């Protein structure tokens, strides 16, 4: 047997010879010989061995289980443990609370004609989040929107842009209480922009601009009775006049609505929670709109012609104490309060304290007659001057000695004669002062009128022990004390009403949300002087107007008997506290034989023409009184007036 050589490097191994018996080899049954092979050379590369599958599956299972446990724990925390907190946060962004403004009650005249009312309006609001670049698809959305909105709502473009650039806020108010036509213009523009944007697959530029229904206070008659009505502020709360004084009744109670919203749109299916607002009560005044117009027209014209600082007219029902008109000039328009002169805001007929002058002599004469110390025919010798203490007193006109009756003292409005007459009220001047003071108080001087009007002055009346040497003699003719115009008007209504003072009233009643009318409390009544005294005083006041020697002849009215009194007083300048200029006035009632209406006119600091009350206030009184008598359909006087002498020599008792 020949030995087989191993193959050379680079040569393939030779194939082995087929097995079988060789010639000459052993025959059948012979034992085969073992085959020898060359030993394999060891390999230098590491062998790759795969892991078992079961451990790998277990690892994946554990990892997935841990992830699921974490998710489950977090889900449990969100849905169970912190569910309420997360729900509240979601509601905060999803649910929008909105206050529902209560409709402010109307203020009407005595016949239900609106003097102040509320109309539908809209607050223009916005959601700044919808103006962010992510939502609006542009970086300049706030500026573009502001440029479009500013001309419509009358706002400042820069301010509006700043409001829309506050993405952390979901609610801003761009303009309050805009009339419906303003929101209609925005809606049209908003719809047009949305249609254009939809073509490009973008949101509308003004999609984030919304409106909330509210109301706006309006005054249909402009400046008519503005001093009485007052005005409201930006929050529609009373800020002056009756709007402020009766704000509790007028304002009502606001409601609240909470609704779900998405993309600045309400989601009706998500439910709405609403607490309805309670509207305010309607207030009916005693004011007569027509008489108010006549009074305001007359005083405005006279103030302009006289170059006066201001003036006011009060019209009162002599029998009931109800105020039929309270006008002042210059006034203001409460619809445009921003342009009003701050000095004109208010009601000077109640808020101005002034020295009344000679119209106050009616109270002095009331005391003299009611105490029985004199009669209309009593002889009063009136010298040209009168010295009391270190002061010399004069009348408005220089004159020699007058021989007058007490009626003549009132008709000629003599200061000296009034001092002499009131000096008879007591054994000495101190006692006389005490008696006079008691009557002034009964007439309501020094006390509020009872109207409860904001800012009303009660006037100034010192106690008699505090009267200066000068005041002891000036107070009887109306200097050294102060009143407001309604107080002064009430003096004359007291005499017209037979000596019974009826507390002035301005509110007739209120009508609540349920439609129920509640009348105002009955006015307080006080007996001031006897009925006979009042009748005598009324006849004496007719002499002031009807007699050719009286100071009030310009107040005469054809067909009617008129009782009245002029006043011309030194005026205290409120800026300096010193006397400067004059206060002119005229007050009276008609018909004198059956009084129905009392009218007062006061003009402060007239600088053009006459400054005497009879000359500039007498015509105003006449104009307003004539209109009031016709409006109230008061028939003309059917009797002749009394003939009480003015001069003592012409009518001795």
Question: How does this model look, in words?
Answer:
With 653 residues, this protein is α+β, with helices and mostly antiparallel strands. Among the domains are: 120-132 and 142-220, Penicillin-binding protein 2a (Domain 2) (Alpha-Beta Complex), CATH 3.90.1310; 221-260 and 274-281, Penicillin-binding protein 2a (Domain 2), CATH 3.90.1310; 289-333 and 350-510 and 521-631, Beta-lactamase (3-Layer(aba) Sandwich). The protein is 32% helix and 21% strand. The chain has 20 helices and 24 strands. The strands form seven sheets. Strands 2, 3, 4, 5, 11, 19 and 20 form a seven-stranded mixed beta sheet that branches. The longest helix has 29 residues, at 53-81.
Radius of gyration: 49 Å
Number of DSSP E strands: 24
Looking at the structure, the CATH topology of one domain is Beta-lactamase
Apparent shape: elongated
Name the assembly state.
Answer: single chain
Structural class: alpha+beta
* Alpha-carbon distance between the two ends: 196 Å
CATH homologous superfamily descriptor of one domain: DD-peptidase/beta-lactamase superfamily
Highest-level CATH class of one domain: Alpha Beta
The CATH architecture category of one domain equals 3-Layer(aba) Sandwich
What amount of the residues lies in strands? 15-25%
Which percent range fits the helix content?
25-40%
Biggest sheet record: 7 strands, mixed
- Unreliable spans: 20-30
**What is the arithmetic mean of pLDDT?**
87
User: How many helices in DSSP terms?
Assistant: 20
Give a short summary of the structure.
With 653 residues, the protein is an alpha+beta fold. The protein contains 20 helices and 24 strands.
């Amino acid at each position: 047997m020949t030995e087989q050589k191993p193959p050379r490097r680079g040569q393939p191994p030779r194939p082995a010879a087929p097995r079988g018996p060789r010639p000459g080899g052993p025959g059948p049954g012979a034992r085969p010989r073992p085959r020898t092979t060359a030993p394999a050379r060891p390999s230098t590369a590491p062998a790759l061995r795969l892991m078992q599958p079961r451990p790998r599956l277990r690892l994946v299972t554990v990892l997935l289980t841990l992830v699921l446990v974490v998710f489950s724990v977090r889900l449990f925390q969100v849905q169970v443990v912190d569910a309420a907190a997360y729900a509240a946060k979601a509601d905060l962004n999803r649910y929008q609370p909105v206050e529902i403004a209560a409709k402010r009650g109307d203020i009407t005249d005595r016949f239900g004609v609106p003097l102040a009312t509320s109309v539908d309006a809209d607050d223009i609001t916005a959601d700044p989040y919808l103006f962010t670049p992510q939502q609006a698809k542009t970086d300049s959305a706030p500026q573009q929107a502001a440029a479009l909105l500013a001309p419509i709502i009358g706002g400042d473009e820069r301010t509006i842009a700043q409001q829309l650039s506050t993405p952390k806020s979901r609610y801003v108010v761009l303009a309050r209480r805009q009339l419906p036509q303003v929101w209609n213009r925005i809606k049209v523009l908003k719809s047009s922009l949305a249609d254009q944007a939809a073509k490009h697959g973008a949101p509308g530029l003004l999609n984030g601009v919304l409106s909330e229904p509210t109301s706006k206070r309006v005054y249909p008659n402009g400046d008519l009775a503005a001093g009485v009505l007052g005005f409201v502020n930006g929050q529609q709360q009373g800020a002056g006049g009756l709007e402020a004084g009766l704000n509790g009744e007028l304002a009502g109670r606001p409601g609240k609505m909470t609704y779900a919203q998405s993309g600045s749109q309400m989601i009706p299916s998500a439910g709405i929670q609403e607490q309805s607002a309670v509207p305010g009560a309607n207030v009916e005044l005693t004011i007569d709109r027509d008489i108010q117009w006549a009074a305001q027209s007359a005083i405005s014209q006279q103030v302009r012609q006289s170059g006066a600082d201001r003036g006011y007219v009060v019209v009162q029902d002599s029998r009931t104490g109800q105020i039929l008109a309270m006008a002042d000039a210059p006034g203001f328009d409460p619809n445009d309060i921003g342009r009003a002169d701050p000095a004109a805001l208010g009601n000077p007929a109640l808020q101005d304290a002034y020295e009344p002058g000679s119209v106050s002599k009616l109270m002095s004469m009331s005391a003299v007659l009611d105490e029985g110390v004199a009669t209309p025919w009593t002889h009063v010798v009136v010298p040209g001057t009168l010295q009391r203490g270190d002061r010399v007193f004069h009348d408005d006109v220089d004159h020699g000695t007058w021989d007058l009756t007490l009626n003549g003292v009132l008709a000629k409005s003599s200061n000296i004669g009034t001092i002499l007459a009131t000096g008879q009220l007591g054994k000495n001047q101190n006692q006389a002062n005490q008696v006079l003071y008691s009557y002034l108080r009964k007439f309501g001087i020094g006390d509020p009128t009872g109207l409860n009007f904001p800012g009303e002055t009660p006037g100034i009346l010192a106690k008699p022990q505090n009267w200066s040497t000068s005041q002891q003699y000036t107070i009887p003719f109306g200097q050294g004390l102060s009143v407001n115009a309604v107080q002064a008007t009430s003096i004359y209504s007291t005499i017209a009403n037979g000596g019974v003072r009826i507390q002035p009233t301005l509110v007739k009643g209120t009508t609540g949300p349920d439609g129920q009318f509640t009348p105002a409390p009955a006015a307080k009544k006080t007996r001031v002087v006897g009925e006979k005294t009042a009748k005598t005083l009324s006849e004496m006041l007719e002499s002031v107007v009807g007699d050719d020697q009286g100071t009030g002849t310009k107040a005469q009215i054809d067909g009617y008997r008129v009782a009245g009194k002029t006043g011309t007083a030194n005026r205290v300048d409120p800026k300096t506290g010193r006397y400067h200029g004059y206060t002119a006035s005229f007050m009276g009632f008609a018909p004198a034989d059956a009084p129905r209406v009392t009218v007062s006119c006061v003009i402060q600091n007239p600088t053009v023409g006459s400054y005497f009350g009879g000359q500039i206030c007498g015509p105003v009184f006449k104009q307003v009184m004539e209109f009031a008598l016709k409006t109230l359909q008061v028939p003309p006087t059917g009797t002749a007036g009394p003939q009480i002498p003015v001069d003592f020599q012409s009518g001795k008792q």
